[in-house]
Amino acid sequence: MLTNQYAEQLQALKVLIVDDEAAMRKVTKSLLQVIGVKAIYEAPDGRSGLDAICRWAPDVVILDWSMPSPNGPEFVRQVRSPGVFPYPAVPIIMLTAHGERSRVVEAVRLGVHEFLIKPVSSTALLARMVSILSNPRRMVRKGDYYVPEPRKMSSYKPETDPALSEIVLI
């Protein structure tokens, strides 16, 4: 069970799932529902995902890496383009079967807030969602893009994060 603060914040979130696999969208939607998210939107490809951000202004986007044009990295580049895209600061969680270090580094460089590898558990998804809620990162300009301000990796330890220590799943 979550603290009331996070439970209420999760219930109030609008989350967009962008994935070309219907089964994966269904699984992700179910996981979001288990952790308390009520407003969940879906898009079957990158193009409709970009349109959906403009239409629904979600609080969080959960994005697949491999999908039809634009793919995940191209999608992030378009969203993070200041002056071009209307919601360049929307938090993005990359949810992918590709866990190679090079992809993680690329995703962070492009401006992804969090990175999860499929199959994902409700505990891992919840931890990333609470991290976004409890530790919002301001966006900074990096070349032609906006990216979340980097964490100080030497000092950030999720296991000691008080926001994450409040998570208790039933």
What does this structure look like?
This protein is of the alpha/beta class. The protein has one domain: Response regulator (Rossmann fold, 3-Layer(aba) Sandwich). Helix content is 40%, strand content 18%. The protein contains 7 helices and 7 strands, in the order αβαβαβαβαβαββα. The protein has helices spanning 4-12, 22-34, 46-56, 72-79, 101-110, 122-134, 162-165, and strands at 14-18, 39-43, 60-63, 92-96, 114-117, 139-142, 145-148. A 5-stranded parallel β-sheet has the order 2-1-3-4-5, with helices on both faces. α5 links the parallel β4 and β5 (114-117). α3 packs parallel to α4 (72-79). The N and C termini lie close together (6 Å).
CATH fold name, please?
Rossmann fold
Number of strands: 7
The total number of structural domains is 1
How would you sum up the major sheet? 5 strands, parallel
Question: Which structural class is indicated by helix and strand composition?
Answer: alpha/beta
Query: How many helix segments?
Result: 7
The CATH superfamily label reads Response regulator
Radius of gyration: 15 Å
Q: Using the coordinates above, name the CATH class.
A: Alpha Beta
Summed over residues and divided by their number, the pLDDT gives a mean of 87
Q: How much strand? A: 15-25%
CATH architectural type: 3-Layer(aba) Sandwich
Q: What spatial form do the alpha-carbon principal axes imply?
A: globular
Q: Summarize the amount of helix as a percent range.
A: 40-55%
The poorly predicted ranges are 163-170
How far apart, in Å, are the first and last alpha carbons?
A: 6 Å
Strand order of the largest sheet: 2-1-3-4-5
Task: Note the run of SSEs as H and E.
Answer: HEHEHEHEHEHEEH
